[in-house]
Design a protein that fits this description.
The complex is a heterotrimer of chains A (168), B (407) and C (194).
Chain A lengths: L4 H12 L4 E4 L5 E5 L4 H10 L7 E9 L8 E9 L4 E9 L5 E3 L8 H12 L2 E3 L41
Parallel strand pairs in A: 2-5, 6-7
Antiparallel strand pairs in A: 1-2, 3-4, 4-5
Chain B lengths: L1 H4 L12 E5 L11 E7 L2 E8 L7 H5 L4 H9 L6 H16 L5 H30 L3 H21 L19 H25 L3 H7 L7 H6 L5 H6 L5 H4 L20 H27 L21 H6 L1 H12 L7 E8 L4 E8 L7 E5 L1 H5 L3 H4 L5 H10 L4 H5 L1
Antiparallel strand pairs in B: 1-2, 2-3, 4-5, 5-6
Chain C lengths: L26 E3 L2 E3 L2 H10 L4 E5 L2 H10 L22 E5 L7 H10 L5 E5 L1 H5 L20 E3 L6 H17 L8 H9 L4
Parallel strand pairs in C: 3-4, 4-5, 5-6
Antiparallel strand pairs in C: 1-2
Helix pairs in contact in C: 1-5, 2-5
Classes of the chains: A alpha/beta (168), B mainly alpha (407), C alpha/beta (194).
Chain lengths: 168, 407, 194
């Protein structure tokens, strides 16, 4: 029987019960959420299971929701089952004051730099990462630029007039 | 006596390996990336990459721009094949908005995307030749890239950072001169590609430089998240155009070239064969476009009034067109809320766009899934125990484009 | 409404296309030619500039097209592009320079020997371009003194060649004492270069 979103949802709720929640299907891609302690267990289950076989990590990124108190930073995993051609999206949320999430580099080597980029932009601390340091910004930077409270422009520049750009 | 004057770094006398800094500016790196190599004689023991020398914060800029202004950012991702990035972005927006483009638009998009794929692979393959020491192929092939640039100029006006197309189609219809230039390309290019192949494919020196170096197995490649020609050279036939067809690719007949060992020579061959396949797709698409006659041949965009600027004559006479024109130009159209992930087959692999919108005028979060960034992590594994010159060849055959690495 | 583009329609006879560099003015006689030293040195320097292509992003690809056979830069004397700063005269900075890359540009500029010129190709190198962000240097003139700016995103190869021709004019007219003078020293000190 071909793998469909219904079957994946059923298998996940069988294995994890109430802990996986918020099942949605925006534009055909099954999306669900799990608590951050279980992220490796869910990823391992999706990898090892003979019917689900999500063995390719397409993407790993972070999102900042400053309005969700207690769950401000999200890490979104996109996985792909190439044999049956199904994609799935899986989110974990964490608090901004203690943003620790277990690293997925043991399972997917592709997650290495993607987690460094998420750390660089949002400050998510991946526990167990082999070398978690900034990758795209300068090493001396002391803030996490893609969080919503920081501006896009460099505030110390003198040659551009913010009034002219409508931001003064 | 000498220890009093010269302060040596910690442990440098006991160290048996040499540290060599390759980059960020180096003739062999196409773009700015730094590799610090630990060498034992000529063999590489370990490497450490530093990137971010051209980090332009696209993802943060995109949170402040309406959808059609983000097209100019996507141009600068993989700048050797910018139309593919543009059209990938437009397809993502169309998926979010639920727009269906007419067939003629799809076929024209296919022609442009395959031309830019040829342009990208031409640069990569000829630069592999330059790094192996053969400059002729590069100069010869740049002439035909100029012809591709002329075709882009006829369609959108720019050569390199094209900003081509709009959400729903193109900004103007392809005129006769563009079709003449495409025909000229289709007639002259096969001979050129054959000559280019003859320079390298069975060349003793080139084969010795590239065969057996920088190899990766299919399991490791999949674990590292490889896509595109690098994955196909390792033996896995994953191509987004066939897996999840977009823009009417299912109407075309083409093969996916697949290698065996995943070394530099296989990557070169896979890109070469992909250029032949792209040429055949362009021929088929051109035939299909010529079959639209009469008023069908005037269709060049879908009907998306909120995102596609209306005709100027309508703006001056009709009320709704005036309102839409005003709202689009002032950037006051609200994007429907939702999240979408869409991928296209870029020159280097699966280029994905993850767009989260909360109903405002600009995206809430836009993330680019950049293939170069993901497969450059594997460079250490690809060059373990290899010689220094093999590391140079591996770097150029992986087709690392700095714009896509750092975004 | 694009106008019809015509290419290679009028074939010109080749002899009238070749232009040769003009001789500087001076006194000429049987077996000798007398002119001032800076004119001769200017003439020699300007027609044999060795550029260092510091290509970081998209403008680098337009530079590759400029070096190709269609828009040949080699006919202006820049046949040999070198990647070693010690051997080059002209630093062509092409592409976006991020704040992480700024010290590298300065380092390369410091390693070049006098006389040296800098051309900023593209909008990003001239002023930051479309990237008004926290991580992009808003123009390389924040770190090195620049002689010619070539705007464009990316500039057409013809524009890059125009920039190089203006550099050639600057080189030809430059006084031999300029690099030792007070004004030049003040300029370098304003950038923190001794």
């Amino acid at each position: 029987m071909a793998l469909t979103n219904e079957i994946i949802k059923q298998r996940l709720t069988e294995k994890f019960g109430e802990q996986v929640s918020n099942f949605e299907e925006p534009y055909g891609m099954l999306t669900f959420e799990a608590p951050k302690e279980l992220n490796l267990k869910v990823l391992n289950f999706l990898y090892d299971d003979e019917e689900l076989k999500f063995r390719f990590m397409t993407d790993l990124c972070g999102v900042h929701y400053p309005d969700n108190k207690g769950k401000e930073l999200a890490v979104v995993y996109h996985l792909h089952n190439m044999v049956d051609n199904i994609r799935i999206r899986f989110k974990v949320f964490t608090d901004i004051d203690q943003p620790d999430i277990y690293t997925a580099t043991g399972l997917f080597s592709a997650a290495n730099w993607m987690e460094r980029e998420t750390y660089d932009f949002y400050g998510v601390n991946f526990v167990g990462h082999p070398k978690l340091k900034r990758i795209l910004n300068v090493d001396e930077m002391d803030y996490f630029p893609l969080r919503k409270e920081f501006p896009l422009e460099d505030q110390t520049r003198v040659d551009k007039d913010d009034e002219m750009f409508g931001r003064g | 006596m000498s220890e009093q004057h010269i302060k040596l770094p910690e442990g440098s006398i006991e160290k048996t390996t040499t540290t060599l800094n390759l980059g960020p500016t180096h003739p062999a790196t196409h773009g700015v990336m730094q590799n610090v190599l630990e060498l034992d004689g000529e063999r590489i023991v370990s490497t450490e990459q530093t990137i971010g020398y051209i980090h332009r914060a696209f993802e943060k800029i995109a949170e402040r721009r309406p959808l059609y202004q983000i097209t100019t950012l996507t141009d600068r991702l993989n700048y050797c094949s910018s139309p593919i990035n543009n059209m990938g972005w437009h397809l993502t927006c169309e998926k979010l908005l639920g727009v269906k483009t007419p067939k003629r638009v799809d076929y024209l998009r296919v022609i442009i995307m395959e031309l830019s794929r040829i342009s990208d692979h031409l640069i990569c393959n000829s630069i592999v030749g330059v790094d192996a020491g053969a400059y002729t192929g590069f100069l010869y092939v740049m002439q035909y890239r100029e012809l591709i640039y002329e075709i882009y100029e006829e369609v959108c006006g720019a050569r390199l950072t094209t900003n081509m197309g709009r959400i729903g189609g193109f900004e103007r219809n392809f005129n006769n001169i563009a079709f003449e230039k495409i025909e000229k390309f289709l007639k002259e290019y096969p001979k050129v590609l054959k000559e280019f192949e003859n320079l390298f494919q069975r060349n003793r020196i080139f084969m010795d430089r590239t065969k057996g170096t920088g190899a990766i197995s299919a399991e490791r490649a999949l674990n590292y998240g490889f896509t595109g020609p690098n994955l196909r050279a390792a033996g896995v036939d994953y191509d987004v155009r066939v897996h999840t067809p977009y823009s009417s690719y299912e109407d075309f007949q083409f093969n996916i070239p697949v290698g065996t060992t995943g070394d530099n020579y296989d990557r070169w061959l896979v890109r070469e064969q992909e250029m032949w396949q792209s040429l055949s797709i362009i021929e088929q698409a051109y035939q299909k476009v010529q079959e639209f006659k009469g008023t069908d041949a005037d269709v060049f965009h879908a009907d998306v009034p909120e995102y596609y600027l209306p005709e100027k004559a309508d703006v001056y006479t009709k009320m709704e067109a005036l309102i839409y024109h005003f709202k689009i130009v002032m950037g006051e159209t609200d994007i429907p809320a939702g999240e979408v992930y869409n991928a296209v087959e870029g020159g280097n692999g699966e280029l994905g766009f993850y767009l989260i919108s909360d109903g405002g005028r600009t995206p809430y979060r836009l993330h680019f899934r950049r293939p170069c960034f993901i497969y450059y992590q594997a460079f250490e594994e690809l060059t373990k125990g290899a010689m220094l010159s093999d590391a140079i060849m591996t770097m150029s055959s992986l087709n690392l484009i700095a714009g896509e690495l750092d975004a | 409404m694009s106008r019809p583009v015509s290419y290679n329609l009028i074939k010109k006879p080749l002899e009238s296309d070749i232009s040769i560099v003009d001789m500087p003015d001076g006194h000429q006689g049987e077996g000798f030619f007398a002119t001032s030293l800076n004119k001769v040195i200017g003439l020699a320097r300007k027609n044999s500039i060795w550029p260092l292509p510091f290509a970081t992003s998209c403008c680098g690809i337009e530079f590759m097209a400029t070096m190709g056979s269609h828009y040949d830069l080699a006919r202006f004397g820049s046949e040999r592009v070198g990647f070693s700063p010690r051997q080059c005269d002209l630093l062509m900075v092409m592409g976006t320079i991020a704040k992480k890359m700024g010290p590298v540009v300065k380092q390369v500029y410091l390693q070049m020997a006098e006389p040296r010129w800098v051309i900023a190709v593209g909008a990003c190198a001239s002023s930051g371009g479309i990237f008004d962000t926290y991580s992009v240097l808003q123009g390389i003139d924040q770190v090195v003194p620049v002689d010619v700016y070539v705007p464009g995103c990316p500039p057409r190869p013809e524009a890059i060649i125009d920039g190089v021709i203006r550099i050639q004019e600057l080189v030809g007219k430059e006084s031999l004492r300029r690099r030792n003078g007070e004004q030049y020293k003040l300029l370098l000190e304003s950038y923190g270069i001794q």
